[in-house]
Design a protein that fits this description.
Strand 4, helix 3 (about 95-100) and strand 5 form a beta-alpha-beta unit. The protein is α/β, with parallel strands linked by helices. The longest helix has 17 residues, at about 15-30. Helix 1 (about 15-30) runs parallel beside helix 10 (about 255-265) and helix 7 (about 185-200) packs across helix 8 (about 215-220). The chain has two domains: about 5-140, 3-Layer(aba) Sandwich (Rossmann fold), CATH 3.40.50; about 165-330, Rossmann fold (3-Layer(aba) Sandwich), CATH 3.40.50. It has helices at about 15-30, 70-80, 95-100, 115-120, 135-140, 175-180, 185-200, 215-220, 240-245, 255-265, 280, 320-330, and strands spanning about 5-10, 35-40, 55-60, 85-90, 105-110, 125, 165-170, 205, 230, 250-255, 270-275, 290. The chain is about 35% helix and about 15% strand.
């Protein structure tokens, strides 16, 4: 019988990043069925455990907080006490290899960030950002396993699909808004989209979480029809949101975490893309149809590659309601 392998995985970021990381964890579980997987992540993303049974334990590390260095030291201590056989980190910072080396874990997998990483890591992997993010993370373990889990998979209780339905999730994370990373169209545009879809006979459902309440409020102030279902605030966690998404025939959303949940569920999805790169954020499959402006901006996609905040013009998000609805109805 195979000895249980204790694996520490480290992946900092939002819920979307943790969903991107799931295929890597799933392939590890296939390769080592008796493994015990601990995931170190930011507190804001701990809800990922509600979507999967592949993660056994979590270590919460507030790397965005004021005490980030003490938080990293606590992670280091937890790793040394955990007696792990293997550690895998998705971080691209040059200090990551030093951190993993200090953990004293025998097998250390991370991205190549220079000569030092080649010395301190047992496996320094070339970082290729020009591909779907799930594949980018999965590169970390290609020397470990022949399993290749291409898409995220989540475990939720699926609901019966509502015929002729379009579920709309218009929001993005509060952190994105605070950082001035605008990634979605205006609430007035969303309101007009609802009007047009309802006029076409679609059963429209609107949803959103606590971060989306200002956006939802403005949508409700501008929408003219009353013939849609306002479900905002009715889902208490990611699992419930995933169940709701599973009930939709089509899902219309922004570039945010719900998009990646829909991808994992295999729901026909229409994400609005502006300054970010759809080629790296969604799989190139017929199930996902990105909606983009014909703005011919030479810098697009710019967010995260050329700049850390969006520009003031935002021509890349000047997408008309009629175009959005045309895309949803044509597929």
């Amino acid at each position: 019988m195979e000895k249980t392998k204790k694996i520490l995985a480290i992946n900092f970021g939002g819920i979307g990043d943790e969903i991107f990381f799931l295929p890597t964890l799933l392939s590890l579980k296939k390769e080592f069925p008796n493994s015990h997987i601990t995931l170190a992540l930011e507190p804001r993303s701990k809800g990922i455990k509600d979507l999967t049974d592949v993660i056994d334990d979590l270590i919460l590390v507030d790397v965005k907080g004021q005490n980030k260095y003490s938080e990293m030291f606590k992670l280091l201590l937890a790793a040394r006490k955990g007696h792990f056989d293997m550690v895998i980190s998705s971080g691209g910072n040059k200090l990551i290899s030093i951190l993993l080396f200090l953990m004293g874990i025998k097998e250390r997998y991370g991205y190549y960030t220079g000569k030092l990483s080649s010395v301190l890591l047992t496996h320094a992997v070339t970082l290729n950002k020009n591909q779907y993010a799930c594949s980018m993370y999965h590169d970390l373990i290609r020397t470990i396993t022949s399993h290749d889990t291409e898409l995220p998979q989540i475990k939720v209780e699926r609901r019966e699909v509502v015929s002729n339905s379009v579920l709309i999730h218009p929001g993005v994370s509060k952190m994105s808004v605070q950082k001035k990373c605008i990634k979605t169209v205006l609430p007035k545009t969303w309101a007009k989209v609802i009007d047009l879809l309802v006029a076409d006979g679609k059963k429209v459902m609107l949803t959103g979480g606590p971060d989306d309440q200002d956006c939802i409020k403005e949508i409700l102030e501008n929408v003219r029809t009353q013939n849609f279902e306002n479900l905002s605030g009715t889902t208490k966690n990611l699992n419930e949101l995933a169940q709701l998404i599973s009930s939709a025939e089509k899902f219309l959303c922004s570039d945010s975490a719900p998009l990646h949940i829909a991808v994992a569920l295999g729901v026909k999805t229409y994400p609005i893309f502006g300054p970010t790169n759809d080629k790296t954020l969604v799989p190139q499959t017929p199930q996902v149809v990105p909606i983009k402006a014909n703005d011919n901006c030479e810098l697009k996609p710019c967010l995260w590659t050329r700049r850390m905040t969006t520009c003031e013009k935002l021509d890349c998000l000047k997408i008309t309601p009629s175009k959005i609805v045309e895309m949803v109805l044509s597929e």
